[in-house]
């Protein structure tokens, strides 16, 4: 029996990759996700966006979500079709309120070295939602052909 | 030095012209190593002049931006100068979105940047 391709509209069908919460393991899901994205003919601009947003989401999960605790896991679920890619990154931390993250572009914060990940995800993805009290970020990129 | 060499440094007319050896400056591990290597250049002389040539770079994350901000601060503290050049349009957009194009001195080409020191 052939396993059907995951449907971006039906989360229970998504591919799942679970990694330990370390920067080394956090790099692992990218290759697999980009393989699917490329196979569905996503344009270079969309691939750039997905790579960037995934990097930011994984970094946030390791650093802030799981707070550097390497015994915790990060679960990445994804599905891609010709129209869109949906990626869900979930950590095992205490969660956060995205509204509480300050704007990094104000004059008093511009020269601070951190705090730009959420802004970049919002800028590059078509839809970004925080779920499960901020433990899970839901990212959508549409394919513009 | 631990890890791979992430930069190539050439001294031209008193300016440390630095090219990145990686196409992607994304993950924290490489960025920490890269930051250490850039810091070594910044700390090697007073009033250091550094040109970061981004011609090889295709991807950049917020952690990389943070590392550049830290480098810029260090260079300024030492009364030095840091300039950036040859940033491709996709990456320049990242600087624009975060408004860091206002913080850094960015030039289209290395020769323009060299002329501005």
Descriptive labels:
heterodimer, A: 145 residues, alpha+beta, five-stranded antiparallel β-sheet, 5 strands, 23% strand, B: Transcription Regulator spoIIAA, 40% helix
Task: Describe what is shown at a glance.
The complex is a heterodimer of chains A (145) and B (117). Chain A has 4 helices and 5 strands; from the N terminus they run βαααββαββ. In chain B, strand 6, helix 3 and strand 7 form a beta-alpha-beta unit.
Tell me what you see in this structure:
The complex is a heterodimer of chains A (145) and B (117). By secondary structure, chain A is an alpha+beta fold. Chain A has one domain (11-142): Heat Shock Protein 90 (2-Layer Sandwich). Chain A is built from 4 helices and 5 strands. A 5-stranded antiparallel β-sheet of chain A has the order 1-2-3-5-4, covered by helices on one side. In chain A, strand 2 (73-80) and strand 3 (84-90) form a beta hairpin. Chain A is globular and about 50 Å long. Chain B is α/β, with parallel strands linked by helices and 117 residues long. Chain B has a single domain, classed as STAS domain (Transcription Regulator spoIIAA, 2-Layer Sandwich), CATH 3.30.750.24. Chain B has 4 helices and 7 strands; from the N terminus they run E-E-E-H-E-E-H-E-H-E-H. In chain B, helix 3 (89-97) links the parallel strand 6 (81-85) and strand 7 (105-107). The relative contact order of chain B is 0.18. The mean pLDDT of chain B is 95. The interface between A and B is medium-sized, with 26 and 24 residues.
């Amino acid at each position: 029996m052939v396993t059907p391709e995951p449907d971006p509209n039906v989360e229970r069908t998504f591919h799942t990759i679970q990694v330990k919460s370390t920067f080394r393991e956090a790099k692992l899901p990218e290759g697999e996700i980009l393989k699917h994205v490329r196979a569905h003919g996503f344009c270079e601009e969309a691939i750039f966006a997905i790579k960037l947003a995934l990097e930011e989401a994984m970094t946030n999960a390791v650093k802030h979500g799981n707070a550097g605790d390497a015994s915790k896991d990060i679960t990445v679920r994804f599905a891609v079709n010709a129209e869109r890619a949906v990626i869900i990154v979930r950590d095992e931390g205490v969660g956060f309120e995205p509204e509480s993250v300050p704007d990094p572009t104000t004059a008093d914060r511009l020269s601070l070295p951190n705090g730009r990940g959420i802004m970049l995800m919002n800028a590059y993805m078509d839809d970004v939602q925080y779920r499960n009290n901020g433990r899970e970020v839901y990212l959508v990129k549409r394919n513009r052909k | 030095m631990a890890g791979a060499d992430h930069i190539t440094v050439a001294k031209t007319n008193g300016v440390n012209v630095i090219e990145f050896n990686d196409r992607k400056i994304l993950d924290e591990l490489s960025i920490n190593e890269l930051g250490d290597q850039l810091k070594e250049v910044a700390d090697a002389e007073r009033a250091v002049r550094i040109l970061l040539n981004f011609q090889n770079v295709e991807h950049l994350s917020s952690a990389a931006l943070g590392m550049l901000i830290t480098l810029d601060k260090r260079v300024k503290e030492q009364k030095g100068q840091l300039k950036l050049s040859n940033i491709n349009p996709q990456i320049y957009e990242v600087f624009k979105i975060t408004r860091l194009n206002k913080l850094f001195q960015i030039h289209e080409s290395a020769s323009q940047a060299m002329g501005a020191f």
